[in-house]
Amino acid sequence: MSINLEKGQKISLSKDGGAALTRVAMGLGWDGVKTKGMFGFGGGTAEIDLDATCIMFAGQQVADVIWFRQLKSRDGSIVHSGDNRTGAGDGDDETISVDLSRVPENITALVFTVNSFTGQSFQQVENAYCRLVDQTSNQEIAKYNLSGQGAHTAQIMAKIYRHNGAWKMHAIGENSRGATFDDLVPLIIPQL
Predict the structure, then answer these.
(1) What is the pTM of this model?
(2) Does residue 70 lie within any of the structural domains?
(3) CA separation, residue 35 to residues 45, 75, 188 (Å)
(4) For 92-101, what is the mean pLDDT?
(5) Which residue, 55, 79, 124, 151, is the most exposed by fewest CB within 10 angstroms?
(6) In a domain, 38, yes or no
(7) Residue 17 Cα to chain centre, angstroms
(8) Rounded to an integer, what distance in angstroms lies between the CA atom of residue 150 and that of residue 89?
(9) Looking at residue 1, what is its pLDDT?
(10) Terminal-to-terminal C-alpha distance of the chain
(11) Is residue 181 in some structural domain?
């Protein structure tokens, strides 16, 4: 059963029955806002390039970044599906797959962010969401709605972190401005 995430909410990444999740995916989906032409003619859809990023932290230090310019972590535990520059298509437009069992022990948190690379605000994005999926069962664990969130161009979505030997998830939901993850790192550090 999926949980609709709210800012600041924490959830465990254990399956029913207590078994730990080992393979999860963070999916990002969106559509450009439809524009109306003059007198109802010539309308279209504004192209909006949202980017999903996963930042691997060892304590408060960035250890690796998985995004459209580096589609795989150096250790191979995290893989990005590739850059979708328009939001075209149904379902997840970008996916970041994580094999939690392969994440190195020195990694304490994985932080997921979304940025509008082309600079439009989330007011200009329709049907935008970010979700966490159990890849072994393809069941949605949690979902966070992005659309209608305001005039910001970036969001620190969530972190998956180690706690007492188990992985947990914290929905951060912090709005910000920036075209790439670099703009967000100073805001992420206090969230770790």
Answers:
(1) 0.85
(2) yes
(3) 6, 43, 34
(4) 94
(5) 151
(6) no
(7) 27
(8) 24
(9) 47
(10) 27
(11) yes
